[in-house]
Design a protein that fits this description.
Blueprint: H1 2-7, H2 10-28, H3 34-46, H4 53-63, H5 73-100, H6 106-136, H7 148-183, H8 190-208
Helix pairs in contact: 2-3, 2-8, 4-5, 5-6, 6-7, 7-8
Length: about 220
């Protein structure tokens, strides 16, 4: 049931195929051969699961472009910029796919590839900044007249939120390293890049696994 819930998500399928893609890169160390061919095939296959991602990401911004006040303005601004960057990443990647299919010329494909990777890299940085911001504001002060039990409950809630945000920060940091490495801004050997990719995609898969149903 949990696995069915996981595989029902397009994003989960994308992360799972990404895990296989980077595992092939790690095993092949970037050398030509069957694993390199499998990696290339999986890379193209991943794009199918991303067809609707730009629309999914940009729709909330189009529906609610102004600040809602439900979050601190700084955090909301960071999240909106992150969403724009990730929408650019997926949207521009569709043009790269079109170039691979021969629908647009290589020069255009290369330009959009640069745009796509930049969106991914800076979107990942913004994701990490958003988590740092939220972690920095997770402090619990005992209120005047508050009972020991009520205070303990708030502390437990804050601890759970801290664990969640620390995991998300670690995941965003690894994704940032991966994005800048694929972009070429950080130089890593193919096998090291493959390992970073495996870790990043594994964290992504873990975060998407539904909670186990209660018996």
């Amino acid at each position: 049931q949990v696995m069915n819930g996981f595989l029902a998500k397009a994003d989960a399928k994308d992360k799972l195929t990404g895990l296989l893609q980077y595992a092939c890169l790690f095993l092949s160390a970037g050398e030509a051969g069957n694993l390199k061919k499998v990696q290339a095939s999986i890379t193209v296959a991943r794009k199918v699961f991303r067809v609707m991602r730009p629309l999914e990401l940009i729709s909330p911004l189009l529906i609610q472009p102004v600040f809602t006040g439900k979050q601190p303005v700084v955090l909301e601004a960071i999240n909106k910029l992150k969403t724009l960057c990730m929408a650019l990443y997926f949207g521009a990647d569709h043009l790269v796919w079109a170039q691979q299919l021969g629908l647009v010329d290589k020069k255009t494909g290369d330009k959009f590839s640069t745009l796509s990777l930049a969106g991914w890299a800076y979107g990942s940085v913004l994701a990490a900044i958003a988590e740092i911001y939220q972690i920095s504001n997770l402090h619990v002060k005992r209120e005047e007249g508050e009972s020991e039990e009520a205070f303990a409950k708030r502390v437990e809630v804050a601890k759970a939120a801290m664990n969640k945000h620390c995991f998300a920060l670690f995941s965003a940091a690894i994704q940032t390293l991966l994005a800048f490495s694929v972009k070429g801004s950080i130089k890593l050997r193919p096998r090291t890049l493959g390992l970073v990719g495996v870790i990043s995609q594994s964290l992504g898969c873990w975060s998407l696994i539904p909670a186990y149903p209660k018996k």
